[in-house]
User: Fold this.
Amino acid sequence: MGKDLTEFYRIKARLVTMILLPIILMLLFGYMFPSSGSINHVPIAVVNQDQSTTGVAIAGSFIYAAQSSALFNGISYTSISLAENQLIEGNVYGVVIFNQGLGQQLQTDGQADVQVILDQLNPTLDQVVRGEITQVISSISPELAPEFPNEIPNTSPSLNIQFQGLLPTAPSSFEFLAPGMIALSLIIGGLSGLAMTFSRERELGTLDGLLMAPISRISIILGKGFAQVVRGMMSGIIVFVLSIILFGVHVYGNVLLMALVLSLGVVSFTGLGTLATSFVSEQESAQLIMFMIQFPMVFKWYLVPFNSITVVA
Amino acid sequence: MSYSINTQGLTKSFKGLLAVNNVSISVKRGSVFGLLGPNGAGKSTLLRMLCTLLRPTSGKAFVEGYDIEKQTNEVRKIIEVVQEKLLLYSVLTAKENLEFFGQLYGVDSSILKEKVNVLLEDVKLSSVKDIPVGTFSTGMRQRVNIVRALIHDPKIVILDEPTNGLDPQSVRWVRDYIKDLKNRGLTVLITTHDMQEAEELAEELAIMDRGGVLAIGKSQELKAKYNVKNIEELFLTLTGRELRDSISRRLRRRGW
Assistant:
């Protein structure tokens, strides 16, 4: 044990990586996952279709209550389609719709429905936003009767929330995970071989054979880099196909665009990995650096919202 | 007299550590030249400069007339090294290794396959050409390593301790092959710790120590000059009998 520890501590690249990795993980875990305490100033679209005094007042109360608590930034839109487009593009996290006849419904039934459309594609954030919207709407309900003593005779008016998702069918948890898995397997597939390409060849001495050949250094880097890109793309394609066949994942959007974006991504990460591993001479140090790059991505891409993939309804 | 290799005051230092100090040697075309020296003498550093793997700190060197600093690609096309560390990929077969290096050096694809077959036949490895070299014995791998260096028809071959770790049969084969390379008109530069090998193969010798050349010339002339019976005695006379402990420059930089 003493010998192995001595070996480990004498190689500075490994030591630095060992210290940096837990720090990075702490930062990620501490700030990455949303919780009800961490939600603030989340943009929410508000569509008020009831232009009666009551309707306008209720919508206004919602926006005021949301912004007062600093939970949401309510942005008013004149139509549902406009608001939904903003949701699709990721500019807002939900759409709150006060339907036409809301005020009338409150007067006659003492309760009215409020529609809320959520993104659904991130179950974690979805739950938190759902809870916060419910809280805000619940907070304005008791205020309605005193606010409108003549319009609303019932002493306990309430707003019932109808949640619905952007997608026609509620996605399975695997549909949420699949895009991250595809991206991650693609990148890990590309990065995992990088430690071998330069560090191992340097250790074995075969790098000299390449450097002595009458070819440019750029062609060596490009050749090795693209081999890793191909490797990564193959991993991603396998996960993509299996996701569809085994887990029934639906593909929303342009597959070719997705392939283009992912291939650009893996090229970027391959370049990053090549740069990182070129500074170390041992394979183990190179693998540690790769692990440090890959591990945080497991949580960023795999479990946290993917804002980079466009959903086209 | 035409020279394949010509160095003029070639020097290499690594952060104050003088690895090669003002070396001027000339290697005749078509000859076998022996470069001897204790561990850490600077032989490998000198060879790495000639192969364009290292840039000299000062001085000049020409390989078949090409400047090693300004005409690196031309130098790389005509020189090849058989290092102590095998330049072979263990998961590739003997044939695949040769084909890979042939492609790397721009050998025409129409003749590459035939060339590979001829070279493997030369080293009596045709029957195992489709087996990964990782499974070969040390002697077999060294034979593939040597013909790997010949795939692109270099004019100069540098052999860095080519018989190190080989059994007597393989050692004899390598020495005979080196003579054969000379007969084919190649220039061979060989480093070795085997004085008998140096005496058998090298027409001219240079003995290096502490980065500099202590003696250079034909082995008979050197023996007569220093009044010794054999090259080993010559070597020990010039370099001394003390043990040489050499650590890599990387460790030296860390204060070891």
About this structure: The longest helix of chain A spans residues 217-247.
